[in-house]
Amino acid sequence: MLAIVIPFYKAIFFRETLNSLVGQTNKKFKVYIGNDASPDSIDDLVKEYSDALEISYTYFENNLGHKSLVSHWKRCLELIKEETWFMILCDDDVISSNYIDSFYKNLKKIKQSNSKVVRYSSILISDTGEKISEPYNHPIIENALDSYVRKTKGLTRSSLSEYVFKNDIDDVNKVFIDFPNAYYSDDLSILLASNFGDIYSINEAFFYFRRGNYNLSGVNSDVVKGKKAEFLFYKYLFKNYSNLITRKQKQIFLFRLNRQFIFNRSYKVYRFVLKEQIKILDLKGICYLPILVLKKTVCRKQ
Prior knowledge:
Layout: E1 2-8, H1 14-22, E2 29-35, H2 43-49, E3 55-59, H3 69-77, E4 85-88, E5 94-95, H4 99-112, E6 117-125, E7 141-143, H5 144-152, E8 163-166, H6 185-193, E9 198-210, H7 223-241, H8 247-264, H9 267-279, H10 289-293
Domain Glycosyltransferase 2-like: 4-133
Protein name: Glycosyltransferase 2-like domain-containing protein
InterPro entries: Glyco_trans_2-like, Nucleotide-diphossugar_trans
């Protein structure tokens, strides 16, 4: 059985999200809605759709999302009962009508691959629901770190909602790590939930990611928090899983942080990159940095 967990806050597109669930050709799933003390009342909407969907609805009195979106994710995941797989679906995204059916049709192959994470093809849509990208398809079997590297190169995209996770996580606190505005938290959760192993991809069904003015990935994104989260993400990876990252992958990641240093003049980023570059004995990418550090006006404390 599959659990669809929706950490709810805004209602503007929520009916479209629920309609995409009602339209599934396979109804073998349960919907868990966790309301993050939203000012938008959805009691009547939930009641309206309860005849067509198996819904468990919880209203949380305290809002967590404004401080920690990841904390709201985690308490919503605690609502899951006996389901063996789960997905976290945003309250403004939609899925194709064959989404759930494709999961069950591929389940045998998923189990044979020993993959704990399943990924769908995705398409970007606007606030009006218009498609603004071609489908992002994926290799059927792909290592999680290799997949993330493709993302850093702009060869694909990724967000939390197009993934299905096996519900054998002992402690969600060890998989869903809190970074500013949850930037990079989804990337890390995919790596951790997969145990840095393989991801199984389904390309015949589609996740529609809404990119517009109402989500953190839209035009109102907080660039400063995003850069801070990027540094914390790589720092976490190198500190805890350095042995699982290849030398080439480390070079790619450190190059990204080098760029961040150039733009932000962060001494903390510089020191981290220098330390890790020395470890892998590749000084080419940092040969210019000590010169910049000598200039007092270049670096600043974070």
